[in-house]
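Internal ticket #5521
Category: modeling
Description: The requester needs a full-assembly model to guide mutagenesis choices. All entity lines are attached below as received. Residue total reported by intake: 1019.
Assigned to: D.W.
Attached entities:
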Amino acid sequence: MRKISWWLTGLCSASVFAAGSEDRQLSLTIYNQNLALVEHIRPVTFTAGPQRIEFAGVSAQILPQTVSFAASNLELVEQNFDYDLLTPAKLMEKAVGGKVRLVRTNPATGVETSETADVLSTTGGTVMRIGNRIEVLRDDNLPARVVFDKVPDNLRARPTLSVLVNSDKAVEQDVRLTYLTRGISWDADYVAVFDEPGGVLSMQGWITLMNRSGTTFANARTQLVAGDINVTDSEESWRQQQVASAQRNAGRETGSGVQLGDYYLYPLATRTTIANNQTKQVSFLDATAVRASKGYEVSFSRFFSSDEPVSAQVRIRFSNSRAGGLGEPLPAGVARVYARDSRGQPQFVGEDLLGHTSAGSDIALRIGDAFDVTVTPTVLQTTKVNKRVTEYQLSYLVRNARAEPVTLTVRQDGLMRVNEVRAESIVGRRTDADSFAWDIPVPANGENTLTFTLRQGW
Amino acid sequence: MVWLAALTGAAHAQEVQIVSARPDSVSVTIYRDLFALVTETRTVDLPKGPVTLVFDGVVDSLIPQSAVIADTQRAVAESNFDFERLTPANLLRNSIGRNVTLTRTNRAIGKASQVSATLVAANRNGVVFRTLDGNEALLCSGIPEKLSFEALPDDLHATPRLSIRLASGAAGKRQVRVSYLAQGFAWSANYLGHMHADSMDLSGWITLGNLTGASLRGAEVQLVAGRLNLLDADEQRGTSTFGETQTFSTDEVLEAQRAERLLEMFEDLDSGDLDFEYFGGCYPLGTTSTRDAIGYIDSINAEDIGAFPDSNTAEALQRVTGVEGEMLDEVVVTGFRASMAVRENLADYQLYRLPVRTDLNARQTKQVAFLQKPGVKIDRFYGVRFAEDEEYPDGEGDSMATQVKIAWRNRTEDGLGEPLPSGIIRMFEDSGSGTVFAGDSHMSDSPVNAPMEIAIGWSPDLSVVVESAFDEPQPGPMTLLTRRAWMPLDLRIINAKPRPVVVEIRQGKLFYVFEDLQVTRASEPPKRKAGDYAWRLTVPANGEARLSYKVGGRLRDEDDF
């Protein structure tokens, strides 16, 4: 009890120090999940005894519960994150019980007269006592300036982090302040230029930093963590369950990057300034000769007839292996694919999401629907074989309006538990327990038809 | 450490900054999903040392992640896109702690007095400043007050800025290519078909629009037809802001989604959903009288904050964009322009190139012809389809209307043989009194060699009367054993036209209680069309034709449901 009262008296007389905004060192570790770990190392001059230290220039989207403060020869009493913003209304509210100066201007002559007023109430309107009169501020709608001698300490222009400490001695020393913040994130972006005749993909990778935290981070040592860390109560956590559609076979190669636990760490080589509302891109990958091929796929999960042809999906397939020209883990991001037009100018042809992809994985980027390669599905006949099994006769007419032959992979997916192909015009293969696939070769400017008979049931 | 960027520049405070004001030339490729790829060529004169290159005048709807800067012949340390805009709110926010000048004007005598002040706080709830007198709130005194600023904060820009930091290298002029995706461009295809007895003259028009505030002068313009895979901004970690193209959506669905996004885009513009926030607010100013507290309202007027670029969003919007009504009004122009857009293959899509460079001004739409095919062979007929999702005969005397159908095959032998991007096709026909509009239809992407069939309306002159007495399958003596039942259909097709016409009757899947749907005992043998049974009958002028068949199948087992 005695100790508490000592603190209370201590606090009343505690001196306030602004720790300045000059960092000796600022470090950022940025995650994919709209989250960053910020570390400020700042020189602070302490006096002996209890005192409050304010930190300006911390992120406006700081998560106050994650703040940690480290310095030697100090006892940390409490840390505060003040949201009490300085506004005209707050200023008047805090003046209740105190005195303000009222400067009236004579509307006709412009002559100013000054009076001292006691602020009595600010509910609904500002009620003041001037001398022995009670008045409502600007009740007469005539100009009147209210001048406040002082801004209360706990009202701030920006949200401010402060700590109460008790220092053993007067000393200037570095303190370390770390916290997590929202509003800053990174993704990878890939620019892939596909040379179809050459079967080569040139791929550039960019790290894209986005700062919407409300704060500029100047001259910061920056590193990025790739991987889906678990973030409680994040609206994005559902995404961790998803497997990006583009990855086909998980790889087993180890990349040359720095590993942090189970994640990959990408440090930027020099310090950089990340301004508020800035999108910054830094190159991290430049592979010019990745072997790649194009494929057409279409997948049906039911049996149906259609008058209108269904477009085939176009995919670009490549391997993220050293032998294939890459061999590095690829952090998750959007891959934008370009192809050159007849004048050699790159044109955008589609984008796909790449998940965190370990080295050695097979990747098939879906870029879009083919204009010239289509399938027209027709159910020729359905026949009940017995109570549980039905037989379907299907035909898939594939048209190719391109000037070169193509191969289309048709997949019949989502079949019932018992399933079997009884007859087929092109030999297909079972791809898993409930799907079959056929590779249909189609000549240039021609067509080909796959017909098959399939039984399914339970 | 292969992951490290080749950053060799010094701290960029010492770096030289070079501003490229405008591109030498620009190329725009417009996609159907309301965005475009903008490729600019810019000449820059690079010094030997590290340099920051600033590109002014980029289209402000650019998607920063998509920006690619090529041919600098130097290592790019980093590229930045700053969208901290110069707005009144940002100007105030970035001036906290700085010196400003406060001007007060006495309304009555018109005298302005200036006082030096420091900005103490500025946020949505108001502005507080400090003078030698003490602390005061802005625009609370009833005296017209305005703030003026000594200089613009460095980190605010009138328009979003794209910049790159380059490592040192050889000095000299070079042509740099800057490309990026930008939202707010659109194009659509429209067709006009002039029908004759068994052919049509088909022409195609491209309507393209620039919905952004940027004007592109002397631009090479390309258009891409095809469905690109695009990621949804809401669902993906990427920052692409397009809607997702669904695997099996029809073109109509895509068209509807596109129209929806277009509408949203206009609503955003109309609602003034820009970067502006208003910094206003005072301490409580009540009054003892019952009138409205006009003093408070009076003190915040446009005049007082007239020092700012735009005092309200509506004004800003009008000045900047001149928003007016819908942009892509369809204009059907008859007759042909001499120059047509030229087509080529781009990957698995079609690319159309406008024949000459053109100005693509802000909020402008343009039309250009891309197709002119006279004498395309067509098949005109009338159609009716019985199926569970369409027509359903409901017994004796039921008369069904027929659809007016036009079919063709997109091949050279028949006068066409050109890929046709999806769009609206409008059909016209000559009558005794001139050309009349015969109806329109949506047409999906049509590759070469593919058949196309459209329905442009309903015919009052051709009706199909159901003469049979039943409207559902009738169990026969063997039904208990075979679980099969049949519905007999007798159809009478009546032609009120003074010429013979072709009618197509299609029998699709009818009863959901049935499997193994089959047609038997047909008075004419059926053909198959897209899984249906189909007949084509010629009905004589002012005459009639008959068709009868039985349709039915195997009753579903009860435990199938």
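Resolution: model delivered.
Comment from assignee: The longest strand of chain A covers residues 278-300.
Ticket closed.
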